Each structure stands twice: as structure tokens, then as C-alpha cells.
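User: For a reading group we're discussing how well predicted structures match intuition. Take Benzoate/H(+) symporter BenE family transporter. Before you show the prediction, I'll give you the sequence so everyone sees exactly what went in.
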Amino acid sequence: MTNELTVQAGKTPAGGRERRALRQDVSGPALLAGLVCVAVSFSGPLVVVLAAAAAGRLDTAQTASWIWAVAIGSGVSGFALSWWTRTPVVTAWSTPGAALLVTSLGDYPYREAVGAFLVSAVTVTLFGVTGWFGKLIAAVPVGIVNAMLAGILFSFGAGIFGAVHSAPTLVVGAFAAFLTAKRFVPRYAVPVALLAGGVLAALTVGLPLHLGSGGPTVPVLTVPAFSWSALVGLALPLTIVALASQNAPGLGVMRAFGYRADDRLLIGSTGAISVLMAPFGSPGVNLAAITAAICSGPEAHPDPRRRYVAGMSSGALYVLVGSFGGVLVSLFTGLPKELIAVIAGVALLASLQGSLAAAVAEERGRDAAMVTFLASASGMSLFGIGSAFWGLLFGLGTHLILDARRGGER
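Assistant: Thanks. Here is the predicted 3D structure of Benzoate/H(+) symporter BenE family transporter, as C-alpha cells, for the group to look at:
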């Protein structure tokens, strides 16, 4: 991946003299890249969102509202930012954040969870518009942040193999399809696994799918409530995951393709849309990383200056699909639990692998990273606060103690 241009995102308003007309920049490859981006998002990460909703005991209307909120938020922000900056800005919900909620959401009343979503969104917005983002990321050791994320994601990776005993043909077949596609067409690996798993489920354990109501989703407004336990156990880990594990790599992907992204504009804007969507169930909208590469690379268009259309395409499709979130809920809730386990696992496999590698990259910080990983993966809960926070706390404590000891030895 090489820098192919330098575009200062967010510095020149759309409609400037140097802008190309949008109709001249639209191309088939860019529109297709947006379609692939949305297909990948809804075929894998959405399963994690539904698992989190089930863990939080949300009803069908609340779950559909959650999908509506994250999809509309992602679509509007991605479309508008891509158009304004003329760079391919792809925004999405946080899959690691949803994974965090799978292990934590059920510990809090839903109104308190919504309050935590709102506080997290406000915090991300402040860190974005003030430029504190870089300072926060620098304050927490990278290994500890990644170890916390790896601990959150561990149960999903292990869940692939935990489901083998109840549906071996389905799980092994879907996993084999994922590996085969990963070898030859890596971009489509998760959708291929979902397709193969669906076919095998229909042939073995059954696939009782139904579409339910075909009408547009009616969002459910929830008045937020606030508690210290939810703020510490949900809002804090969600904020750190959003900034360190989503927005940081999201900016990295854009810069790797030569786009000099304005972090204040992009993170501040996604934070602001997250504030608006939080009362409808959204735990946050942030810069995408993996799917952003689909819209930022040469497959979207040979000319890097015309790839912003891919970001607009994905944004428009997010809005379209998200408007019918109730249909998606009805469709996906008919999937066997074993298929959900394997699809969620393979969808998060790359994130888990990257987090583990980054957690132990530096030898000096491995003790703290390991403590963070074990505590985060344990599922422990103290004083109503989930394991992600305790993993972060114990890891930071270990880091400080060992650093102080080693400093004294010098």
C-alpha cells in the first residue's frame, strides 16, 4: 500500500473552483466498492450487534432501532464527509464496541446503557474537536489497549470451536469456506462463510428464516439514565475502543492511501452524529478501517481523486438498508446459534489477531498486556462494572508497578 496522492481532507468546501463535477466523477467501480463495503458490514459485524442486543435483552423494536441508528448515522456521516472533503470517508459502527457490549450490556438497565452511549459520544466529540485525541492515545500504552480489545474478542474466536459439538457439519463447513475464500478472495471471505453456513444450516439443523414486516423501521426513542457503574463499566471502555481501536486505524487507512485526513473534522463529526443517535440505541459511529480500505484502494477507481464517490455510495446504501432494520432483525434472528457463533468469530478474527500481535509487540510491556488480556477475557464483574474496565485498570496498575521497579533498578 503506497501513498498515491496528497489530499488535504476537510480544508476546501465542496463546490470550489478546483472541484470536479460529481456527475463526471461517478463510476461503476466506485459504486460497486460502496456496495461491497455495505455487504461486508451487514454480513458479518451485524451478527455481533445482534448478539449484543440479545445479551442486553432488547426487544425486537429496540434492536431494529439500534440497527437503524447505527446504519443511518454511518450512512449520513459517510456520505456527507465524503462529499465535503472529496475523499473516501467510510464510517460504521464499532464491531469491537459491539463485542464489548455482548459481555457487558446485560449488566445494566437499558436506559443506563443509553446514558453511557450518550456520554461516550460526547466524550469522543470533545476529544475530536479539541485535538485531544492524539494525547489520549499517547497516554495509554498501546499494548494495554490492544490487550483489552483482544480479551473482549477472545470469546468470539473460541466460540467458533465451542459450537462444533452441536453442529459439526455446519461449523466446520462454514469455517472451511471462510479459509478457502480468505486464500483466494479475501475481501469476500465473511460473506462466503455466511452463504456456505446458511446452505449447510438448511441441510442440517434447519434454517427457519422469515422477513417479518417489510415497512420502514420506526426508531424507538429511549430517555437516557445515568449511573456511575454504567459510566465506568460501559462509557469508558467504549470511548477507549472507539478512539484507539476504530478511529486511530481508520485515520491510518486513509493516510496509508495518501489522504491527509483532518482528524478534528472527521472524529468531531462522527462523534456529533453519535450524540444524535445515542437515544435511539446507537453505541457510537466512528471511522471504519477494514471496509474503508475497500473504498480507498485502486479497486474503487484508478484515479485516487475520484474514489470519494465510493464513500458516498456506501453512505447512501447504509441509509437505504438501515431504513429497513426490522427486516434485517427478522432475517438474522432466524439463523441458528451455531451459525451466528462461527460468523461472528470469523468476522472478528482479523481484529483479534491484530490486537494480540500489537499487545505483545514490545517485550517490556508484555506483563501488563497479559494481565489486561486475562482480566478482560475472564468475564469478571465487580461492583456492577464489567471486565473490560477491570482489565484496563489491572493492566495499567501492572504497567505502573513494573515501570517504577525497573526505573529504580537503573
